[in-house]
Write a structure and sequence with these properties.
alpha+beta, 13 strands
Length: about 550
């Protein structure tokens, strides 16, 4: 790291410490140990959740996005803080219009007046990385323009490095966080936010969703105007609707609320089970409601993709959960790409059986889907298994979707909507054309393998001939045995040296006639002292090892 960057990071770290102290979290950067339970209230009687939210908001886009990530992790964040962090998702401080103007004109190469007929200086939404303004194109099209905050990329890159350092320190200092891989959490966050910095990715995602839902009157996805779009400026069609977060559902009838929850759930089930490409951030600010059975989907920056094989494996897992067949669950998880030692398969099956049995006496409609998923994936994490990224994303998406649906209609059952899609996907698997396709694909793979076999054997023989093949044998416990043998050999060597020093000192003491004391030569004294020190060292080492 260059000296200038190091100085810049130190300055930023000092700024973070000052902001933290201002919001009552100064003890985190102090020399004293971190208190096991931070005070519930701080300056002006504010709760710790509100103080944390305000601190992250003040620190800028990186910390706001990190707070958003934490708001989807109820397994590691206390409920009071979780509730406040959700306020970060659509409540960031807007940038002054002059800075917005500078970004737009630098990206598009013209003044705002030359590009747009109208451009509203007041943003309609301010997110952590950018903010959205209403505008009108020269042809009269009503659009929204998403503009990235100035210096967002530079500040985010520097802050990510600081987050890595903070994660390592917190992992070492705070015992209560040792069950969480904080560095991996920051790594996941870094990958996500770097993708969101490129608005071109979001634009392409929106085009895919728009194509997938083409002709569906119940779901609208805004059109992208590519001529006015760059990695830092995104211009899209203005779609109808009120964000779900701003909607007053108390005035709605129970039937309308059920219809709306069903429409939102149906939309995401189509994404997951039919299209295999889903919006991974279905929180209320990203869903615009036109009427109970018609919605618009916006902010397509966070997405994930599932292959046909992934979807079929997922369906079988969901059916086994619904049918309470716990014995099959470890096998289903392996089919999803989850890898764990065979020795732990029985433990995993037993833990999952306990979870499934706990819900066996509860009616399907009374089961909290978020809690079931949280327990299942929490069990997977507990035995030291890492899920593939696409399943972690799907887990968060389904949990968020279930929470949104339950907020709209407390009695709504997400699984009841998901099951027909799952059954249809399983039935489609046994359609004659699908079976013929799989047989054809399998035969092609087998034929390719048979044709490649002679070449692979020839390459292996060439490697043997050239001496490029290495055979390594690593018996269990071999490394520990080697370490013990090396320690034993070292002690034997030291013992031989000590004995040699004793014998040499004895010979010198008897036969040398220089500075005699009581008939013994003083020349023997250094060797004798060295021999005694070595013997004491050996005795202490043997005593501390417990093997004596």
């Amino acid at each position: 790291m260059a000296r200038g960057e190091r100085r810049q990071n130190l300055a930023r770290l000092g700024e973070i410490a000052q902001v933290a102290a201002r919001h009552g979290f100064g003890y985190v950067f102090g020399r004293k140990d971190i208190p096991p339970e931070p005070l519930e209230e701080g300056p002006a009687g504010k709760s710790r959740g509100r103080r944390l939210r305000e601190m992250l908001d003040e620190l800028g886009p990186t910390f706001v996005k990190f707070g958003q990530l934490l708001s989807t992790r109820p397994d590691i964040v206390p409920p009071d803080i979780l509730e406040e962090l959700r306020g970060l998702q659509d409540d960031a401080r807007p940038e002054p219009f002059e800075q917005v103007r500078a970004v737009v004109e630098a990206e598009l190469g013209l003044t705002i007046e030359q590009i747009f007929e109208e451009f509203d200086e007041q943003p309609i939404a301010a997110a952590s990385i950018g903010q959205v303004h209403r505008a009108r194109l020269p042809g009269g099209q009503q659009v929204v323009v998403k503009v990235q905050r100035p210096d967002a990329e530079r500040q985010i890159s520097g802050d990510i490095q600081l987050l890595y350092q903070a994660a390592k320190v917190a992992q070492d200092r705070i015992r209560r966080l040792q069950f969480i891989d904080l560095v991996e959490t920051v790594d996941e966050f870094a990958r996500t936010i770097r993708r969101e910095l490129d608005y071109g990715i979001e634009a392409r995602n929106a085009e895919v969703f728009r194509r997938n839902f083409g002709g569906d009157e119940t779901v609208a996805v805004p059109k992208v105007y590519w001529r006015y779009t760059t990695p830092r400026v995104l211009t899209m069609e203005r779609v109808e609707g009120t964000t779900l977060r701003q909607l007053d559902l108390a005035e709605w009838s129970a039937a309308d609320r059920v219809t709306l929850a069903n429409r939102i759930t149906q939309t995401w089930m189509q994404m997951v089970f039919v299209h295999g490409f889903f919006h991974a951030d279905p929180h209320p600010a990203n869903i615009l409601v036109r009427d109970p059975d018609r919605i618009s989907v916006v902010d397509c920056g966070m997405t994930e993709q599932l292959s046909q094989r992934d979807r079929e494996a997922l369906v079988r897992l969901l059916i086994d959960i619904i049918d309470q067949d716990a014995e099959r669950l470890p096998r289903r998880l392996r089919a999803l790409g989850v890898r764990f030692p065979r020795a732990k398969e029985e433990e995993l099956a037993d833990r999952l059986a306990v979870i499934v049995q706990r819900y066996s006496a509860i009616a399907i409609g009374d089961i909290d889907i978020r809690e079931v998923l949280r327990e299942i994936f929490g069990t997977v994490y507990a035995i030291g298994v890492t899920l593939p990224a696409r399943w972690v994303m799907l887990d968060k998406t389904v949990a968020t979707l279930a929470g949104v649906a339950l907020e709209i209609s407390p009695d709504f059952d997400v699984f009841a909507v998901a099951r027909p899609y799952a059954v249809r996907l399983v039935a489609d698997r046994y359609r004659p054309d699908r079976i013929a396709g799989r047989v054809r694909a399998d035969l092609t793979r087998y034929a390719e393998a048979m044709l490649d076999y002679p070449f692979q054997v020839s390459e292996l023989l060439d490697e043997f001939k050239d001496g490029d093949v290495e055979i390594r044998i690593k018996p269990e416990g071999f490394d520990q045995a080697v370490e013990k043998l090396e320690a034993t050999a070292n002690r034997v060597v030291l013992s031989v040296i000590a004995a040699s020093l004793f014998l040499t000192s004895a010979v010198i003491a008897v036969f040398a006639h220089y500075a005699d004391v009581a008939g013994l030569s003083l020349l023997a004294l250094p060797g004798l002292i060295a021999a005694i020190v070595l013997l004491v060292w050996l005795c202490v080492g043997i005593f501390r090892s417990g093997r004596w």
